[in-house]
Design a protein that fits this description.
CATH architecture of the largest domain: Up-down Bundle
Shape: extended
Helix content: over 70%
Oligomer: single chain
Strand content: 5-15%
Radius of gyration: 29 Å
CATH class of the largest domain: Mainly Alpha
Number of domains: 3
């Protein structure tokens, strides 16, 4: 029988570390749960690669998904919400989430609902999460909804991390390449200029251009970087504060097929998730629209909500807006007829997510060699511009 080592919390929040024999990890989990013990890490002795880690690294960072996961597991282990909040807070090292959890625990102990206590900290918890928990409290499914939110957020984070990791390599190549170019232009080229001057030789046009660029970067490079940062910050400020400007920009962004499919996929997943958790359609669409960062699509979804409230079908309203993909409208119609709108929207979300993932992978596979070729050409041009005249000087000296 395999031997397992586990770390856990008991009902009082005391940490336990033990080594036991069990038929399997699943069997051990069941046995511990029956004893009122909450395991957050299990590993088979001698097989560390097969470790199951239920804890999230609160020492480095903490997310709402981390908190909800542990709360769900503790509540399922029959630990009262007030105590569960304290236990999770004790495992959080960062002061802000720790103080928030303790404050919520105090509010709940004073008789407030969990969702009501969370609403005081709306900058830390999303409105979507608060509304879901509010709905779960009415039907007594708090632990299930907390787990659903945690799993959903973790899946979304994994999808984002997958895209982010794919982008890291080409960006690293570009940054290193630009760093090499900057070093050559700002440090090497100016030194070559001094050599040319001391030799009283006519400098070729390409070399003159490189020397000019090197001197410019050396003298004004920092000012250029600061100016670019200032421009970017100013544009971001205008984008966030001016609704008309943001609406126009977001409309242009939405007209690009890649971003349209990414946004539709994200909002489809979210509406599907909210419907599956028992929220009414209008509330699911309204809350789902707040999770996307595009004012144009968000405004149209808000109009859809008003249309549904006035008696229109979701599909008819979406079709009348003329901005939703035909496949999305057709899927919504099918979902309305079959009564499986949540499942259909989830499939649509998955369909668009895979398409976006495919587009991203294709783009990255194309951009990587282009970056390398671009940097190679630039570095080669600089080297030839500098070394060419030096070779000529050596020939003359010989």
């Amino acid at each position: 029988m395999p031997t397992f080592q586990y770390e856990a919390l008991d009902k009082s929040g005391k940490k336990i570390k033990n080594t036991v024999e069990s038929a399997s990890k699943s069997a051990l989990l069941y046995e511990l749960k029956q004893k009122g013990i909450f395991p957050y890490e299990i590993s088979e002795v001698g097989k560390s690669a097969k470790k199951i880690n239920f804890s999230f690294n609160f020492g480095k960072s903490v997310s709402v998904a981390d908190i909800f996961f542990q709360l769900s597991m503790l509540i399922k282990s029959s630990i009262p919400l007030v105590e569960a909040l304290k236990i999770v807070a004790d495992n959080v090292k960062k002061q802000r989430p720790k103080s928030i959890l303790l404050d919520i625990s105090t509010s709940v102990s004073e008789g407030k609902r969990f969702s009501e206590a969370m609403a005081k900290h709306s900058k830390f918890f999303d409105e979507v999460h608060i509304r879901l928990i509010e709905a779960s409290e009415k039907v007594g499914k708090l632990s299930d909804v907390l787990m659903d939110i945690a799993v959903y957020e973790e899946d979304r984070k994994k999808a984002f991390d997958k895209v982010k990791s794919a982008v890291v390599y080409p960006l690293t190549v570009l940054v290193i390449g630009l760093g090499v170019v900057g070093f050559l232009l700002s440090y090497v080229v100016p030194k070559m200029n001094n050599i040319f001057k001391s030799m009283n030789r006519e400098i070729p046009p390409s070399t003159q251009f490189m020397i000019f660029m090197g001197n410019f970067i050396k003298d004004y490079g920092m000012f250029v970087v600061l100016a670019l940062i200032l421009i970017i910050v100013s544009l971001q400020y205008i984008y966030k504060k001016n609704k008309n400007v943001r609406l126009k920009i977001d409309k242009k962004i939405y007209s690009i097929n890649f971003f349209k499919e990414a946004l539709i996929g994200k909002v489809s997943h979210m509406i599907s998730f909210l419907l599956a958790e028992g929220l009414p359609l209008t509330q699911a669409i309204a809350l789902g629209s707040k999770t996307i960062n595009n004012q144009f699509l968000q405004t149209n979804l808000e109009d859809v909500v008003e249309d549904i409230k006035s008696g229109k079908n979701f599909s008819h309203s979406a079709e009348s807006k003329k901005i939703f993909p035909e496949i999305f409208v057709a899927a919504v119609k099918t979902g309305e007829k079959s009564g499986e709108l949540s499942e259909i929207l989830d499939r649509i979300g998955e369909f668009y997510s895979k398409r976006v993932e495919k587009y991203t992978a294709t783009f990255i596979s194309l951009i990587e060699p282009l970056f390398i070729v671009f940097i190679g050409v630039v570095v080669g041009f600089i080297v030839l511009s500098v070394m060419g005249p030096l070779f000529d000087l050596n020939t003359i000296v010989d």
